[in-house]
Amino acid sequence: MSKHILEQLDEVVASRASQDPQVSYVASLFDKGLEKIQKKVNEESLEAILAAETDDRQALVSEVADLWFHSIVLLAYKKASVADVVDELERRFGVSGIEEKASRTK
């Protein structure tokens, strides 16, 4: 089986992080630092929320794709990966959301 597109994207983001910021968008985000990446995730999140308020399904899909991409950039910047998120989702699978949330330490 081939790698899932999110795993492929994770690898591309990791490989581009150290490239020339004038050539690579990912590298430019890394160069600007955590605050810039956080702002992009926030911006894309808001755009996805606003798109959900319309009847434009493709706009919603497009904005969520942007949100996922920038979330992967954030994960890479913080030395985490798509695999880490998948592992966490697998750990939670089959557990009530209410139960899982209650099990978290504060």
So how many helices?
6
Our estimate of the beta-strand percent is under 5%
Q: Major β-sheet, in short?
A: none
Low-confidence stretches: none
- The rounded Rg comes to 16 Å
The proportion of residues forming helix, as a percent range, comes to over 70%
What is the string of helix and strand elements? HHHHHH
Large-scale geometry: globular
Mean pLDDT: 93
Secondary structure class reads mainly alpha
End-to-end CA span = 39 Å
Provide a descriptive summary of the structure in words.
The protein is an all-alpha fold and 106 residues long. The chain is built from 6 helices and no strands.
Could you provide a short overview of the structure?
The chain is mainly alpha-helical. 74% of the residues lie in helices and 0% in strands. The model has no long low-confidence stretch (mean pLDDT 93).
Question: Keywords for this structure?
Answer:
106 residues; 6 helices; mainly alpha
Topology:
Elements lengths: L4 H12 L8 H8 L1 H19 L4 H21 L4 H11 L4 H7 L3
Helix pairs in contact: 1-4, 3-4
